[in-house]
Amino acid sequence: MRIFVPMVALAAALLTGCTAQESFQNAENCVKVQVGMSEQQVRGIMGPPTGEDMAGTNGKTWSYLFGSATDTQPIRIQFDADGKVSSATCAPEASGSERPTGN
């Protein structure tokens, strides 16, 4: 139970740490990510990921927050086993033409 409380606090800090400006920048930058880009290229565009999920030997997924502290959706960049982008799932409003509300 003691471990659970710090994890909840960390999650809350991450959610409130994503400002509207960061969300807008993540949305703008996500549409620049192209299939076949390297991890280094994506990091240059998007910055360090908020989260990283390993998919065994099949690659990994980087996540970036999008939205306000109460309404978040991750932006997901999926990499294949060779470390190249296989797909990018941008938030629905990630056209870069509309700023998210909140914060």
Q: What features would you describe in this structure?
A:
- By secondary structure, this protein is α+β, with helices and mostly antiparallel strands.
- The protein has a single domain (4-89), classed as Beta-lactamase Inhibitory Protein, Chain:B, domain 1 (2-Layer Sandwich), CATH 3.30.1450.
- 32% of the residues lie in helices and 24% in strands.
- It contains three helices and four strands; from the N terminus they run H-H-H-E-E-E-E.
- A four-stranded antiparallel beta sheet has the order 1-2-3-4, covered by helices on one side.
- The chain is globular, with a radius of gyration of 14 Å.
- The protein starts with a helix and ends in a 14-residue tail after the last strand.
- The model is unreliable at 1-16 (pLDDT under 50).
Please tell me the total number of domains.
Answer: 1
Report the span from N to C terminus: 31 Å
Q: How many strand units? A: 4
The strand order across the widest sheet is 1-2-3-4
Query: Main beta sheet, described?
Result: 4 strands, antiparallel
CATH class: Alpha Beta
- How many helical elements? 3
Q: Which spans have pLDDT < 50 for at least 5 consecutive residues?
A: 1-16
SS class: alpha+beta
CATH architecture annotation: 2-Layer Sandwich
Rg, nearest Å: 14 Å
Mean pLDDT, nearest integer? Answer: 74
Order of helices and strands: HHHEEEE
Report the principal-axis shape.
globular
Query: Which band does the percent of strand residues land in?
Result: 15-25%
Q: What's the CATH topology label?
A: Beta-lactamase Inhibitory Protein, Chain:B, domain 1
* Percent of residues in helices: 25-40%
